[in-house]
Amino acid sequence: MALPETHHCPACSDDAAQDTVLHEDLVIGAPLSMEDLTDAQRLDRFARKYAHDGCQVREVRRVQHDNLSGYAWSVRFTENP
């Protein structure tokens, strides 16, 4: 699963605010099998995708979205300097 186009953090994006350390991505199109995982397994799965330049996933939750499956995943993460 690739990082979403909306991903922004100071380590990865020149236009992100330097004083912002809590970020949230909306991941659309994650595999349907994500729904079968436990909360801890989902957190681990996304943590591996965001494990660059000190980014640490804090929360993964399902949210409503107007796509074909009707939902997306909200991923909240911090970027450690």
**What is the terminal separation in angstroms?**
25 Å
Instruction: Please trace the helix and strand order, writing H or E for each element.
Output: EHEE
The portion of residues forming beta strands comes to 25-35%
Radius of gyration: 13 Å
Strand arrangement, major sheet: 1-3-2
Task: Please give the number of β-strands.
Answer: 3
Query: What is the subunit arrangement here?
Result: single chain
Helix content: 10-25%
Structural class: alpha+beta
Regions with pLDDT < 50 over 5+ consecutive residues?
A: 14-20
- SS summary, helix count: 1
Largest sheet: 3 strands, antiparallel
Structural write-up:
This protein is α+β, with helices and mostly antiparallel strands. The protein has 1 helix and 3 strands. Strands 1-3-2 form a 3-stranded antiparallel beta sheet. The protein is globular and about 35 Å long. Mean pLDDT is 76; it is low at 14-20.
List its salient traits:
81 residues, alpha+beta, 3-stranded antiparallel β-sheet, single chain, 3 strands
Brief overview:
The protein is α+β, with helices and mostly antiparallel strands.
